[in-house]
Amino acid sequence: MDFNLSPEEEAFRDEVRAFLDENLPSEPERDLKALAEWSRKVREKRWVGFSWPKEVGGGGGSLMQQVLLKEEMAKRKAPPLGTSFMGLAWVGPAIIQYGTDEQKRRFIPDILDGKLQWCTGYSEPGSGSDLASLQCKAVRDGEHYVVNGQKIWTSVAMWAKWMILLVRTHSDVSAKHDGITCLLVEMNTPGITVRPIRNMSGSSMFAEVFFDGVRVPVENRLGAEGEGWKVTVSALAFERSSISEVYGLARQLDGIKDLAKRCTRGGRPACEDPAIRRRIAWADVRIEAMRLNGMRFLTKQLRGEPLGSETSINKLLRAGLEIELGELAIEMQGSCGALMKGEGLVPDEGRWQRFALSWPEVVIGGGTPNIQRNIIAERVLGLPKD
Amino acid sequence: MNFGFTEEQELLRAEVRKFLDQNCALDEVRKIAATPEGVAKPLFDRMAELGWVGLTLPDRYGGIGLGWVDLVVVLEETGRTLFPSPLIATVLGATAIGLAGSEAQQKRWLPPIGAGRSIATLALLEASDRLDPAGIALAGKRDGAQFYLRGEKLFVMDAGTADLFVVAFRSGSADEDVSMALVERGAPGLVVEGLDTMDETKRLGRVRFDDVQVAREALLGPPGSAWPVIARLLDYGAVAVTAEAIGAAEGALDLTVRYAKQRVQFDEPIGRFQGVKHPLAEHYVEIESVKSLLYYAAWMLDEQPAEASLAVSRAKAWASDAFAGLGIDTVGLHGGIGYTWEYDAQLYLKRMKWVRAAFGDASWHLERVAALGGL
Prior knowledge:
The structure holds 2 protein chains of 2 kinds.
Chain A: H1 7-23, H2 32-44, H3 63-75, H4 85-98, H5 101-112, E1 118-121, E2 137-141, E3 144-155, E4 162-168, E5 180-186, E6 192-197, E7 206-217, E8 221-222, H6 228-237, H7 243-262, E9 264-265, E10 268-269, H8 274-302, H9 311-332, H10 351-356, H11 360-363, H12 369-380
Parallel strand pairs in A: 1-4
Antiparallel strand pairs in A: 2-3, 3-7, 4-5, 5-8, 6-7, 9-10
Helix pairs in contact in A: 1-3, 3-7, 4-5, 4-6, 7-8, 7-9, 8-9, 9-12
Chain B: H1 7-23, H2 26-33, H3 41-49, H4 68-80, H5 87-100, H6 103-114, E1 120-123, E2 139-143, E3 146-157, E4 164-170, E5 178-184, E6 190-194, E7 204-214, H7 227-262, E8 264-265, E9 268-269, H8 274-303, H9 309-334, H10 345-357, H11 362-372
């Protein structure tokens, strides 16, 4: 057990720090021009797609370097490395693993340069947690697939240029995971209709997407026909270290500690209320546990051991924290917690109100807490499947 | 960066586990717990021979010279089998002597402690049950270079088997005027009584002092200098208790998971029902998270002991309440059989009652996390 860095790791971390000292725009200065400049510079450093092989234009960074890079970036609240969020998170890795050479040439550079915003067509009205039951259909017609059906909860569908789409190509299969195929679909293809959905915070980040006779060239199929589950599940399992989430939560907690000094309860600052102190401390404990859990999993990976379902642990902890921190921030405001905004009444321009209405995005997306509990119970503890 | 155990540590774990599985399965634990002393002295002696009691003691005093991360490995295993022994008490007693004792005191006491010949323990708590300087009220009346102790200590771990008590007492009226002394069993005026503990594998006692003489050479450190040492001992104690608690928690979860796979109701193994499988998954999350927190705290004790308190409190805060809940689910998910004396579920439930308060409960540690975190 040793939490110190090796000289090489330290040198890399120092390189990142020096880069940040020189190039990180201060927060008030982050206008579009500054952000574009930032994107160009980190792209030049090959820190966009840092874990991807150098042959496809990635950085070829080691696992440990990735964590150090993310950690330093998160500590300094740096803008993201690359702007094609889903492209970098799972579309790119899936293309690198399963795509043809032509697909790699066509998509990877644009993902790295942030020219292609992707969306993810997985969930359907009847297929949420039970994703493999999906029914959106594709039928082969010569050199095209013809897609009919519907997707839902598709984040940023109204802005994305491309979609990674799961369709059913075979229904006469014994296991529902079979018969699913993965297609890459250009969003301006005729027959696609995007209808934004307003979420409970009042904004629209996700949408319904309808497919009516949408023709997708066969060359845009990712992986073999009927292997779409493998293609996408492996991409989802392309495990991101949770280090950025940990720093994000830690930042929220710092904000809540500060809020606790400004809110009053019973005539005293909330930070003197033992119940509030206890809840803040309890959140601190779980955030630190997430950080250390992540380091234990990382050590396993560095030793070449496969990661099992351990990452569900941090997903569960994060889900609880996202909700709890929002609730805490609202409760400390007392009656003002029932307001959405209000000059002189609601602190921080209603930031905490919006925060308390945004947890479903991360708590439900990517597998609900109950699904994570099933994964742990079945795959780790070996209990019988539901 | 490496947050894992070494091959040597994994080997140590395997050896301790094999030793305990062979020599002290739960039916044996019950037999030992039913004896008046409540500890397995012959097994403890053999563990001492194998070097596990003196694991953290310096090699010049017959120890192995390893760290607390290594000790955590041993304690997880003794916890897993609910092994009734004075291991924690004695390691903490030795740690106190190592931190504050003179060369002569270390030379006199550490070798027999590491060899299992002398059982040591800390006598810190009193009726107030406070973990701060004000909690040390046992009066030490000065007479020249020596003191006479009068009062009583409570909740002293393994008091009934201890040969040597590390006693905290008040040597002056100022808040932090706290001193420590070594008092041997049999000292005139010293009366030791066992308390009736819920967990029979963890013995606690009351120690009365009726003008017990403390000679100058029995003082552990200069008079009035003990509080910083005691504060450190609380961290070591919390880590030791949490390490054993993790092992016991894994034992409890394992027992319950096995039962949930076998027990059939409504034509299904009950482990298929989410009302059973989800709490078990949550307990797994808690155990793994406490492990991460605790291993880091132990590493801090080895590397930067003066800075370890925050890490220690995070681990013990989570373990105290969460494992008490696990103890309850261990009984509850078993149904009626879990409520019986014969079935082992209750042993884990009771162990967690001891864990909860020992060296600070969740409230105490969470308050410390809040304070150290700037609140």
